[in-house]
UniProtKB/TrEMBL annotation:
Keyword Ribosomal protein: no
Enzyme Commission number(s): 3.4.-.-
Group of enzyme by EC: hydrolase
Species classification: Bacteria, Pseudomonadati, Nitrospirota, Thermodesulfovibrionia, Thermodesulfovibrionales
Pfam families reported in the protein's UniProt record: Peptidase_S11
Binding site for substrate: 225
Protein name: D-alanyl-D-alanine carboxypeptidase family protein
Active site (UniProt): 64, 67, 119
Coiled-coil residue windows: none
Length: 329
């Protein structure tokens, strides 16, 4: 009887253990499942550890996140106050507004703001030509730069991020790129600027607004860079500071811009949970249909995610204020 009771107790304990393991796996899967993008990551800047990852090393098109590297390379050669003449090639590069015309003159500083805040492709090409004589020569410098900083799974074929064969990056590499980009004061300033007034040498003015809408929603955002092409879909890399700690997030291939913001906030929330000890770090590899808990921990917390109603109210208010003030914020 005693042996039978002992056997029943062991069976019960085993069932309970299996239940807890299944609960953990299902909970981890649920956390991973609501990031729609094919690839996403949150990285602790202090340790370089992945706090949450979904296919973090999958090679995908970078779109305009490319421009972070473009500006880094340009600023290593050019003075921010140097004047640059827009070439015919730069002017004809497909791009969002404002349109830069052949023969117009802009400072390197203003071209940096146009490239990083508004993602103007013509500005990126103009910086490339001013730095290396041609975009083709400049791309060689870009690829040397990413290899030097350890972004081994990244390769560029142009300075703008326009689609093309052989151009790719990963979300994990993007966090390395963002980390190095923040060491350039002008980049850090530009990606944290909401609105800015650009003036050409002949007096033409362009009022531009940052494509990163989370600057109006997240008080602790250091800055970020968006990207979009039909091939790459919606992309975003950001740096967020909360209570003295920095977390990088990156997303490639999201379905729409609104989902891009939601997924970024989800990544920040997951990072908060891991750093506060509420969750273990998780890396999901969807191609292999597996989830891998990882072992490093931290007891520091990030701020709580803003509620949806508060986010929309804050966003609308800040957009209104920004439009009423045509200076850098």
């Amino acid at each position: 009887m005693r042996n039978k009771a002992k056997g029943l107790r062991i069976k019960a304990e085993l069932k309970f253990f299996i239940f807890i393991v299944c609960l953990f796996v299902l909970n981890s899967y649920a956390l991973a499942a609501d990031i729609d993008a094919p690839s996403a990551v949150a990285v602790d800047a202090q340790t370089g550890k992945i706090l949450y990852g979904k296919n973090p090393h999958m090679k995908l098109p970078p779109a305009s996140t490319t421009k972070l590297v473009t500006v880094m390379v340009a600023l290593e050669k050019l003075d921010p106050e140097q004047k640059v003449i827009i070439s015919k090639k730069a002017a004809k590069t497909p791009s969002v507004s404002p349109r830069l015309l052949n023969g117009e003159v802009y400072t390197v500083r203003d071209l940096v703001y146009l490239a990083l805040m508004r993602s103007v492709n013509s500005a990126a090409v103009a910086l490339a030509e001013a730095t290396a004589g041609s975009e083709q020569n400049f791309v060689k410098l870009m690829n040397e730069k990413v290899q030097k900083i350890g972004a081994k799974d990244t390769r560029f074929i142009n300075a703008s991020g326009l689609p093309g064969k052989g151009q790719y990056t990963t979300v994990y590499d993007l966090t390395k790129i963002m980390s190095h980009a923040l060491s350039y004061p002008l980049i850090k300033e530009a990606i944290n600027t909401r609105v800015y007034l650009v003036k050409s040498g002949n007096g033409k003015e362009h009022f531009i607004q940052n494509t990163n809408h989370l600057l109006w929603l997240e008080d602790n955002m250091i800055g970020g860079k968006t990207g979009y092409t039909r091939t790459a879909r919606h992309c975003f890399v950001s740096a967020n500071k909360v209570k003295g700690r920095v977390v990088y997030t990156a997303i490639l291939g999201d379905s729409n811009r609104e989902k891009l913001w939601e997924d970024t906030q989800q990544l920040i929330a997951r990072a908060e949970d891991v750093l506060s000890g509420k969750q273990e770090p998780v890396v999901r590899l969807s191609e292999e249909k597996s989830i891998m808990p990882v072992s490093y921990k931290s007891n520091q917390k990030l701020a709580k995610k803003t509620t949806k109603k508060k986010v929309k109210k804050t966003f609308n208010k800040r957009i209104k204020n920004a439009k009423n003030n045509k200076r850098t914020i």
